[in-house]
Every structure is written in C-alpha cells, then in structure tokens.
Fold these 3 entries.
Entry 1:
Amino acid sequence: MKVLRKAIFRRKTMEVDIYVEIDLDSQGYNIETEDRFFKHMLETFAKHSGINLRLRAFGDDIHHVIEDTAIALGMAILRALGDKRGLRRFGYAIVPMDDSLAVCGLDLSGRGYFVIDGDIDENYVHFFDTLCRNSRMNVHMNVRGFNSHHKVEACFKSLALAFKQAKEITGEDVVSVKGVLD
C-alpha cells in the first residue's frame, strides 16, 4: 500500500495568515505572497525539490511573513514525511549561480539544526533556521559570492536538491540503527 506523503498546515496569528499544502510525491506550485523575491525563492524550492507546494503567506511585515512561512512549511514537511520509513534520509548538493556557490548537506534525522558558513540576508538565515527546527531537518550550508540575490537563490536551490534526494523512498526500513528518526 502506497503511503500518501501529503500535509496541510495553517498558521494564523495577529501578525500573519499562512496556508501550506504539500505533496512530496507530485510536482507543481502555486505561491501567493506580496514579496516578489520571497515568492521566487519559494517557487525555486518547490521546483527543484520536486514537490507540489500550494502556499499563501500574508502578514504585517516581511520579517513575520518569512519567519511564519518557515514555521508552517516546516510543520507541513514534518507531517508529510510521516514515520520516515524507506527514506534515503541524506541528501547533498553543490549549486553554482553566476558569482555564487552554495553547498548543502541535509539529514532528515528528526533533530532540527541549521548551520551556515557564509553571509546572506538575515531574514533568510532566520528562514532556514526556523524551517530546519520545525521540519526537524539537520542542514549544513556553505555559501560564497558577491551578489546577495545569487547567494540566497543558490542556497534555496542547494537545499531543494538535497531535500529531493533525502525524501526519496529507497526501501522499507528506517535508515537508522536506532530504528527511528526522531
């Protein structure tokens, strides 16, 4: 029996209204948010990770929208991964983008942690950290370059490609000597 790896998560506070619908096993995206660059980054993540992502994110300022989108997306990913049985678990990617280069290693370990070596916009450092804590992914990222847009986009692409590998179903067991990923 095929397990459906889908989830819906809504986060509504006094500051934001975020809706996320994710399907790890189909492709496509429909992103609605007021910040065009953030929308582009979310579309980039969906496209390169091979997921279907429906997301609406609106709020009182861009910091709150980015932070709470990371919470909601992270929770949706965590729910969609289920018991993580059969997952490849690990993923990695190296993404050049013009002057920039991003390297990402990812483990769907159940222990959310984010480390970055390199300089990107503070809102996006916060996005990746919040996403990792809420999805319980362990991500190490390295980025270098000159253009801030290219650095952030290379980070999103490397995360997406690493996640695409890690979420792949390759068997039936949990890839852990403990027998669980949490």
Note: The first helix runs from residue 36 to 49.
Entry 2:
Amino acid sequence: MSALPNELSPPVVPDRRDADLARVSSRLLATCIGDGPTARLRVIDGDQEIIEVPVPALRMLVDILANMAEGNAVSIVPIHAVLTTQEAADFLGVSRPYLVGVLERGELPHHKAGTHRRIYFRDLLAYRTAQMGQSQTALDALAEQAQKLGLGY
C-alpha cells in the first residue's frame, strides 16, 4: 500500500480469478493462526524467506481475502484517516445530506478544512458503534414487548 497516512487506499474489486484464489488462500491462512502473538510464514517467490507476521495482521489478511472471495470490494482505512462527508456517508451507508445533518446536530465530531467538513475515521467508528448499540437496545425492547403481548414472533 502506498497510501499516505491521511489517504484512503482505492478499493480493490476482485475479478473471478482473484475471488477464487482468495477463497482458497483465506482458508489456508486461517489455519496458520495460532495462539501466539506472531505467525511464521514461508514465502516462495524468487528467494525462499520465512517472515514473522503479527497475528492481528494475519487475521486482517484472512478477513480481506474472505471478503474478496465473496466478490466484495476491499479498502484499508487507517484509524487516523480524515474523511470527506461523502466518504463518511458511504461508510455508514447513508446519504451525504443526512450525514451533514448529523454533523450539524453535533452527534458526530468533525472539523473544517477551509469550508469543507472533515471527519476523523476513529470518530466515525465510535459513532457507528454507538448507533449499532442503540439499534440493538431498541430491537431488544421491541422483542420483549412482542413476547409480553404474545404476538408469537
């Protein structure tokens, strides 16, 4: 990856061959994940080398490959990345005008670069986590109410 710290890497959309290869390699790599803090892998490409990889990085690679195997576009976003409102809206799966409203209500921290709003990815993750928690709480309350009313679902 040659992305600068504040740049997003362009999404990688796998073709059929890449997806098939990702499916096989994700399964093989998953078996390499042990209990220790690192895993040792042998790379055979020109010179044979053994490299030591942090297990969390190996888990991320398995996740990336699994997503590619399903044909999903994959992009890596550094936690300290700065996103535009459109990038943040795309990440959340909402419209940009909706996201701007969230920003203007103060529900999500942001700053301005000139006249443009910018959002730190770490703040966007925290917002999404909080929203998912609120959604789960609401769903639990609805399920409990349905059970009390004997609605049968």
Note: The chain has two domains: 16-69, 82-148.
Entry 3:
Amino acid sequence: MASGPYIFPNLAKLNFFSATNILGANVANFKMLLLTNVFAPNDATNEVLADLANELANGNGYVTGGVALTGVVLSQSGGTVKFTSAPAVWTAAGGSIPAWRYAYVYYNGTLNAKVNPLVGHFLGDNTPADIPATTNGNTLTVTQNAAGILAAT
C-alpha cells in the first residue's frame, strides 16, 4: 500500500515563510504522531497540535505526542530545497498499536508564539484505508516519501 502525499495546512504554509521560521528551527524537536480515521483534517484552519483530535491512545508501544524524528535535514541541491527525516519507528509491546489513518509532523515547542506548530500530514494508505494494527512484538515503521517531507524547486 502506498501512502498519500504530504498535505500542508494553509496556516502551516504561512508559517514556513513567516517569523515562525519552522524549517530553520531545532531539528531535534520535530515529531510524528498518528491519528485514527475518526479525525477529519481541516487544512483551512489546522495550525497547531491543539487543533488535532483522535490521536492513538498512549500504550502498547505508542506514546501520546508521537515519536521524535531523527535524521532531520534541511538541504539544498540544484535549486531544490528538501526537508527530510529518517523513518519514524514504534515497536508494539504489551499489546497492539491500534490501526491509524493519518500521520502528522509537527514542531514540539513554541515558535513565534505558535505552540507546537504543524508541518504537514499524509494518509497512511492513499486508498484511503486504515493502516492495520501493529501486533505485539512487531515494529511499525513509517518511511517518509522519497521526495522528503517537503521539497520545493
């Protein structure tokens, strides 16, 4: 199953180019979290983490607030700027990590008075369908699109 492309909420796009300077922020503070199919993204108004609902429950290897992204890099080559990271990884322990539909990347912290501003989101399966539960002892790996989280030419 192929994941959908990253979608950038309108206000997140504004934050890329404003004094928020989200792409120039501390790379150690970017996180990815997972939401259920009950959530309906509103790309006209979602701007910060508090605008989201229906995150997976804490437990069984999933921690509320998501996992810190590693290998976060903002690079430029041949006129293309890319914002990338290593895959996000969770390991189910003590039970299954529940099924999920949306993955969100956000900045964990405050930038220009924006608390936990969103970067973007994507469907785990662009059908759209839920990504099935990850059973106890197995690893859930969410690999970024080959183009990165964000690529601009």
Note: Residues 10-152 form one domain.
